[in-house]
């Protein structure tokens, strides 16, 4: 018992030495790392040999990041002559106009949208929490406003959710189409078969 108390006391003393600046930097760094959540869907799709899903995610992620980059570039160009029209794109920490939408958040939520639609809520929920922390870290570190983060989240989730299709596990569900000749000479009968293991 005494040993646990000593460990707790040492931890308490060390953690009290961490100041607000260090905590802010740690949260920002975690958010920077979580922008790479797209590694999760790519790794999972490859591990189960879901090449159709991998293709869908490549299209969704590429589209998402393309829109982010074009939006940031366009709004930055507009800000050079008419900054009053694009004030929503201005970053809170340094004033440049490349904050809308949040690229970190769009990247993280692209993984959520894909995994939610393709593989279900068991993947979507935990990734939503991690992606949400990415958005929080961007606002907390004063890199983005709440509007910029919300726009990035909606863009990343929405595009990837719309582009993706539901995964059908071939070991559980099978859909097949058969054709046979009918009783008449030129007749053909098409049959659709669906089976599912429980």
From TrEMBL:
Keywords in alphabetical order: Signal
Manganese keyword on record: no
Ranges for domain Phosphatidic acid phosphatase type 2/haloperoxidase: 54-164
Classification via CDD domains: PAP2_like_5
Domain of life per record: Bacteria
Residue runs in coiled coils: none
UniProt xrefs under InterPro entries: PAP2/HPO, PAP2/HPO_sf
Leader sequence segment: 1-20
Family matches, as Pfam families: PAP2 (PF01569)
The name this protein goes by in its record: Phosphatidic acid phosphatase type 2/haloperoxidase domain-containing protein
Biological source species: Helicobacter enhydrae
Lineage of producing organism: Bacteria, Pseudomonadati, Campylobacterota, Epsilonproteobacteria, Campylobacterales
């Amino acid at each position: 018992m005494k040993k646990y108390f000593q460990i707790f006391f040492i931890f308490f003393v060390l953690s009290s030495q961490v100041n607000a600046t260090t905590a802010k930097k740690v949260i920002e760094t975690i958010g920077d790392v979580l922008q790479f959540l797209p590694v999760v869907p790519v790794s999972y799709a490859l591990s189960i040999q879901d090449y159709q899903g991998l293709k869908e995610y490549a299209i969704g992620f590429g589209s998402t990041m393309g829109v982010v980059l074009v939006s940031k570039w366009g709004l930055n160009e507009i800000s050079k002559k008419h900054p009053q029209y694009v004030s929503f794109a201005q970053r809170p920490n340094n004033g440049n106009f490349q904050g809308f939408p949040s690229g970190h958040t769009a990247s993280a939520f692209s993984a959520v949208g894909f995994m939610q639609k393709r593989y279900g809520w068991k993947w979507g929920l935990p990734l939503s929490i991690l992606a949400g922390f990415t958005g929080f870290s961007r606002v907390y570190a004063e890199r983005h406003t709440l509007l910029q983060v919300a726009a990035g989240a909606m863009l990343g989730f929405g595009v990837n959710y719309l582009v993706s299709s539901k995964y059908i596990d071939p070991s559980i569900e099978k859909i097949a189409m058969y054709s046979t000749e009918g009783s008449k000479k030129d007749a053909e009968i098409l049959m659709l078969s669906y089976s599912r293991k429980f």
